[in-house]
Amino acid sequence: MRDAYHEELDSIGDGLVEMARLVGSAIGRATTAILDADLNLAENVIEGDKKVDELHHDLEGKAIALLARQQPVATDLRIVVTSLRMSADLERSGDLAQHVAKLARLRFPERAVPRDLHATILEMGQLAQRLMAKAAECVITKDVDLALQLEADDDAMDLLHRTLFQHLIDDRWKHGIETAVDVTLLGRYYERFADHAVAVAKRVVFLVTGEHADDLQQDLPPEIQA
Amino acid sequence: MRDAYHEELDSIGDGLVEMARLVGSAIGRATTAILDADLNLAENVIEGDKKVDELHHDLEGKAIALLARQQPVATDLRIVVTSLRMSADLERSGDLAQHVAKLARLRFPERAVPRDLHATILEMGQLAQRLMAKAAECVITKDVDLALQLEADDDAMDLLHRTLFQHLIDDRWKHGIETAVDVTLLGRYYERFADHAVAVAKRVVFLVTGEHADDLQQDLPPEIQA
Predict the structure, then answer these.
(1) In terms of pTM, does the model score above 0.95?
(2) Which letter, b or e, does each residue of B42-59 get, where b requires 16 or more Cβ atoms within 10 Å of its Cβ?
(3) How far apart are CA A14 and CA A110, in angstroms?
(4) A141-184 per-position pLDDT tens digit
(5) Under an 8 A CB cutoff, do A225 and B64 touch?
């Protein structure tokens, strides 16, 4: 049987996995909301982010209480500090999913994304969701190989982002400036979401190996660095 | 005379102030670089961000070492954990200043910002720099009133951001899509920079009062919520 201390550590881990699950689902639903101009679904994502924020605050509270009461050292200290950072990444990912949903709401009953970009945005949304599912799996399994694999997946996101930009600056763009602004910001939201998922996975690498994977957030534009 | 422990705490505080000073200067220079299409200055900002990243890593190392060795509780624990978060905010602010500089470099020898938006971008850059200077002052003085004042200053940033968007979606916009994309992202960088400055100040409020100022990052678009 585990002692109270390790139960608390486990409960922090469970909180992270739950947050990742929620924000992964949120980005998936937000993507559907923006592609289908589904107002109810958008509202549902926006409302749902409160739960993510609550989990973030709970987790911070637990982590700080653990630091104060148990005064962990070495690996356990690393786990607690790293968990605080992961929680911040996940909370921010939730905000970004909420941004996508808010854009869907803002443009309703219009669709924010023109038909010819649906496939690209759908792919970005699905990839973002998969990246977050893998990040959650990394947190559960502490699988360093899987964590490192996320970087390759993130390259696919950069490629999608570049495709999006090429559409935008193509002379044949006929959707006007407002839509260009919306699509520019959307691209940024998905890319940042993916960056945070990768960051969570890389923090797992740090946890296990004690070594920082370099350059946690590549954060691409200007303007999708070639 | 202060003991070694409090000297370490002080040195973490000094690191934060130094980071705030560097990123405040960076956003000012990046703004000049993008308005004047000054490639040297842009390169200088891009290069200078390494120093910010170094300070961030040093500070994290010191904070974690302090947690492990000294096992602070109560207020001191709060200071260390809050410092870690401030450092993350400042590191991210540095990235955003670097993004502005990279956009200047990408468009060189052209200017990324059309003439009729110079005044607005200049104001955003100056305001971002002032917000960061105030955030640094909050860290030094622990002045809660000043920290709360930053929120009002941030409202001015939102207003500038809205002005920028109105220009973009005005039917008379004649600068094409690529420039619209650049200006959209620029607006986002300044706004996020300001959010992080406000976050640093609000963390000072938490440090002093023990209470979380709600909703640390307002993070405006879609599409500058009216």
Answers:
(1) no
(2) bbebbebbeebeebbebb
(3) 39
(4) 999 999 999 988 899 999 999 999 999 999 889 999 999 999 99
(5) no
Any chain B CB within 8 A of the CB of A74?
yes
Residue B84 forms contact with A (CB below 8 Å): yes
Distance from the Cα of residue A129 to its chain's centroid:
8
| Matching residue, tokens 């005064």 | A71
Is the pLDDT assigned to residue A104 strictly greater than 50?
yes
Rounded (10°) CA dihedral B77, B79, B84, B89: 150
Cα dihedral B52/B58/B61/B64 (nearest 10)? -70
* Chain A residue with Cα closest to B172: A177
DSSP B212: P
User: What amino acid occupies position B193?
Assistant: F
Q: Does B225 score more than 60 pLDDT?
A: no
Cβ atoms of residues A145 and A154 within 8 Å: no
Tell me the two tokens of residue B16: 């934060």
Domains, chain B, ordered by start: 1-219 (1.20.58.220)
**What is the arithmetic mean of pLDDT over A192-200?**
97
Cα(A220)–Cα(A224) distance, integer angstroms: 5
CA dist B82 → A134, B36, B147, B194 (Å): 29, 38, 15, 19
In chain A, residues with a C-beta closer than 8 Å to the C-beta of B219 are 95, 99
- Indicate which of A165, A172, A177 best probes the interface with B, i.e. most B CBs within 10 Å of its own CB: A177
Report how far apart the first and last C-alpha atoms of chain B are (Å, whole number).
53
* pLDDT tens, residue by residue, B127-185: 999 999 999 999 999 999 999 999 888 999 999 999 999 999 998 899 999 999 999 99
List Cα–Cα distances, A9 to A59, A70, A75, B66, in angstroms.
10, 11, 12, 20
Q: What is the DSSP letter of A116?
A: G
Q: Closest residue of A to B178, CA-based?
A: A169
| Cβ contact A201:A146 at 8 Å | yes
Q: Whole-angstrom Cα distance, residue B25 to residue B34?
A: 14
- Check whether the bond before B114 is cis (ω within 30° of 0): no
- For A7, the token pair is 């139960």
